[in-house]
Design a protein that fits this description.
Two copies of one chain form a homodimer.
Chain A (H helix, E strand, L loop, with lengths): L12 E2 L9 H7 L9 H18 L5 E5 L3 H12 L5 E6 L2 H12 L3 E6 L8 H10 L4 E5 L1 E2 L4 E2 L3 H9 L3 E5 L18 E3 L13 E5 L1 H8 L12 H8 L11 H17 L1 H21 L15 E5 L6 H12 L1 E2 L1 E2 L8 E5 L7 H16 L1
Parallel strand pairs in A: 1-12, 3-4, 3-5, 5-8, 8-9
Antiparallel strand pairs in A: 2-10, 6-7, 9-10, 11-14, 13-14
Helix pairs in contact in A: 1-9, 2-9, 5-6, 9-10, 10-12, 11-12
Chain lengths: 371, 371
């Protein structure tokens, strides 16, 4: 065979639904020489990652660490550990990732009750309350920030009614973590997962997760073994815990990346970081209004970091994306499911969230839509 | 909290059971700027990775790609797709990774027949033939290169008797791929997985896998859904196939790494690479003999890339490893299971396999064992 030449990526401005742009010091971290996954220096770094992740998730949960897979592996980690065949689960479905959660839960053998909302709208507490009148689930799962629609579902009231019903609360914070408030302990969340490639601005490859002591207790007292060996928290807690029992070989370089990414987030300060994401969202929104464009997701619940921009009548949705990429080196995302062809998904996540990038995008759109 | 300082890894010579040292151009590849996982340039690179992996696995299998997890995720990928509850499986257990396969298969609901050999010895075809007289399994699984013992089990005869019995053959090549012959098509293997951090000399984080058309057919005709959404080959084949249906966000930087690692392997040439591993193994063995040390695994079946060096009577096994690391910056591995305290696992994998490193290790051992 003809051996391909070395890959030379184009210099994109990553304004889609993830990955987002990566900070220079994270690239530098990934180019550092490898150590073994049981090296004392790596083990010390694992401790630092856990501690920084706790700060970013705003939790004291001991079991807070990055799963060795992408965000979807984090989702699967939460479900496979908490659900057993025959368990009941209520799952909010208001976008692609809620639908994925329902699929994953069913593959664990759970009986899933879907609570649905139109894509772009939030899951209302009253909807969950109604479902809880009909079933006594082991857990309720909600997507905090729906990457497919740009809607942010508030968690506090949902958490209250979920716990009143004696269920665990599981939330997806893949797109929210690092870009807007995620308060695991204050909100009383039992299981949470995220990804590295959105508002933490690292490459994809790890899934930060956190389980409350209550969730850990459920996992420890299961009747059946966790169906995934790779994601079994009872094994992983010995590897990421004090015993350091060998489980799998951690993706070392990706851990270098998240270590640096978390350092950057905490050095900036979470409040500052959230404000930055809010401000650049408002800047984008003002500019969109000038262009006669709006945001499709529910008013009052629009994500700062991911904007579902309405495609105007007559515009060529895919053609605009293609021109943004080829003429301006700007990547934005397409709509999924019912929003396919109706929105562009414009991310302002992590490193990408700055005024210069907002202006670059607005300027490019102005040129493209005029013609 | 006190924000930790940036991680500055020590410069180790990685001579354990993996990860191995990484080539400079692979580090450079990982520092390249990120593109989106649906970027046309990334999609072209995915095709090149598949093509190069086929060359390295010596297969024409269409479904040949890197799973987005470490080697153990590759193991789980193979089992969850091929096994359903109630299926029969025969698994060779002659080390830690055979034992892990049996655990993973049981978590798929399979009835597992273990065919065991002493750690350090190979699984004999006659043992599998005997087991096949008592059960008609859906698959037979064997570890080609046991990372925990340094034994290499020949595959060809096992493959013949497995297929005569109408079963699929699954093999673990985590430590063999890139360091000694792995001939998927010639050996008629149906499912194979590997890792990036051994003889491919990339950081851990991806698991190259390949499924034969027969295995793909079994996965497509399952009665039940694959229990893992993340590892479901029926979904992954649409993402890594021509349709490019979004599944998960691939670990982009790790794919940059494997692209470069495969390029290096194919540029060197597989035969040359295997010979290099053999030669450095022989160099090590000759040096060990001079030091009065031997290799614990079965004669005639010793791996070139991983050497289970017998700890001499009276030597402090852990103390020697500690001194190698702290005084010489050389990492070697401990024994696992029944070999704990009895062997050092000395890897000569990928980049690490060169005469200079063999001499550095032997020189260090000479100094340490004298005192």
């Amino acid at each position: 065979m003809q051996i391909p030449s070395a890959f030379e990526p184009p210099q994109r401005l990553l304004m889609g639904p993830g990955p987002s742009n990566v900070a220079p010091s994270v690239y530098q971290a990934m180019a550092r020489t490898l150590v073994g996954h049981l090296d004392p220096t790596f083990i010390k770094m694992m401790e630092e990652i856990k501690e920084m992740l706790r700060a970013v998730f705003q939790t004291q949960n001991a079991m807070t660490f990055p799963v060795s897979g992408t965000g979807s592996a984090g989702m699967e980690f939460c479900f496979v550990n908490l659900l057993e065949p025959g368990d009941e689960a209520i799952i909010g479905v208001n976008g692609a990732f809620g639908a994925r959660m329902a699929d994953v839960a069913a593959r664990c053998g759970a009986n899933v009750t879907k609570v649905e909302a139109e894509w772009g709208r939030i899951i209302e507490p009253s909807q969950i309350a109604d479902a809880l009148k009909k079933t006594r689930p082991k857990l309720v799962a909600i997507v905090h920030a729906e990457t497919s629609t740009g809607a942010l579902t508030p968690i506090e009231e949902l958490s209250r009614i979920t716990h009143e019903a004696g269920a665990l609360l599981l939330i997806d914070t893949v797109t929210s973590l690092g870009g807007c408030p995620v308060k695991v302990d204050e909100w009383n969340v039992d299981a949470v997962y995220s990804g590295t490639q959105k508002c933490l601005s690292c490459p994809p490859g790890l899934a930060p997760v956190s389980l409350s002591p209550r969730a850990m207790d459920v996992a420890a007292k299961r009747k059946s073994k966790v169906q995934s060996w790779y994601l079994d928290v009872n094994l992983l807690s010995s590897y990421w815990g004090e015993e350091r029992v060998y489980h799998h070989t951690a993706p070392i370089t990706m851990n270098y990346a998240i270590h640096e990414g978390l350092r950057l987030a905490l050095t900036e300060g979470l409040e500052n970081r959230w404000n930055r994401h809010r401000q650049n969202h408002e800047l984008l929104k003002a500019g969109l209004t000038e262009l006669g464009l709006g945001i499709a997701s529910q008013k009052g619940h629009q994500l700062w970091q991911l904007n579902a921009v309405t495609v105007p009548n007559g515009a060529d949705e895919a053609g605009v994306r293609k021109r943004l990429l080829s003429e301006f080196n700007i990547e934005v995302g397409a709509g999924l499911g019912p929003l396919k062809g109706k929105v562009w998904r414009v991310g302002l996540m992590g490193e990408t969230s700055n005024p210069r990038n907002v202006e670059a995008f607005l300027g490019a759109m102005k040129q493209i839509l005029k013609k």
